[in-house]
Design brief:
By secondary structure, the protein is mainly beta. The protein is built from no helices and eleven strands.
Amino acid sequence: ELQLVESGGGLVQAGGSLRLSCVASGFTFHDYTIGWYRQAPGKEREGVSCIGSSPGNIYYAESVKGRFTISSDNAERTVYLQMNNLKPEDAAVYYCATTKLYSDYDCRNLDYGMDYWGKGTLVTVSS
């Protein structure tokens, strides 16, 4: 059974940092793409970042580029999202997701095709 579990959320002051983790089980982790998404109250869900299995298959939303870094550890079956210089507008529930339809799913298709989701981890940023 494919399962994704997020952790690492919490409360941080503006300018601070958090590292989110997405631990995967039930599929061949290193073959597949995992994306990070967030949803703030009253806002639509947005794709934040994504990483696939091939070099260059990586994505950052413009709003987080230069501040967030996505990485993966195949041995630990985990994708991380290092979030630096956090801003109040980064506050949201953060989710990770994947698809088993294609290996190395193109991260440019972050907003399509993801059908396995974690339950989310809450990030709160105080000003």
